[in-house]
Amino acid sequence: MAFDLKKALSLPDIHRSVHKRDEVLRRFGPLFRDPSSLMHQDYLDFLSLKHNHHWSGLERLGRTAANDMDNLRSAISILVDETALLSDRFDTALSMVDGVGAATLTPMLLLAYPDRYGVWNGTSEPEMRDRGIWPSFPPNSSFGKKYEIINTKLIGLSKDLGVDLWTLDALWWVSKLERLNNGEIKDARFKAIWSMANQAEQTAKQSYGQTIERTVKNKDLRLSKEALITHLNELLDETGNHCAITGLTLQFDGSDDQLRPSLDRIDSNGHYETGNLQVVARFINFWKRDTDDMEFKRLIAIVRRE
Asked: How many helices and strands, by DSSP H and E, does the chain display?
């Protein structure tokens, strides 16, 4: 996997992020290594791009965790305790804090121990997948076990490239922008697919973050995330990026959220599996709910006077 490091590091945003690395590590590293002194404002500052100089979007969900700082400090203490297996402490911390996922926990680990932990988020994962370097996982792997495997891959990549893990994480943004400009990826569609697959995977998360075949409202999730992403691509290709029920054009990055793609079970009493899934507009999924698929299509036809 090749990066033009000189070109990447010359980009203003990347140069600024790398330049700010030591400052950010000095401020937040001690707080995450020993979270007993982590204050409410410290955590909110960590979530803010203005202060972390590296990650945007953490504030959207991460602020909820600040409602119980004692619990948050306990979870971080477990997360950074290197006397325990990484997979175990990751799963435990994940289960303890609402609104916090891998995209928040892994930057904490990087800031605490910048030479030992990489970042797993909505930028690094799609980039690794598209480059064919996303690792495979044993069946029924927990989020913690997956991160353990991903982290080993990230450490290897950083050594191969001769960069630290903070800089590697910044390089994913460069890679993404370059391939977007070259037309190599359709980013908005991929992000929508990844989001649908991620949401489906989250429904199978048990109290300790395990992703296993389980029952959610008597519905089983019978596809791995990797298989689901492939299947969603196939479904959208089949419909030409249109809603499977109405034929409306789906908007992957448009201004109308109700036209964004949403994963629907054709038979609401069936499982999340191949043959029982379709991609529809968000408002259609909301309207349909548990209505029989054929009955719902009949009602739509009446509205359209067909």
From this structure: 16, 4
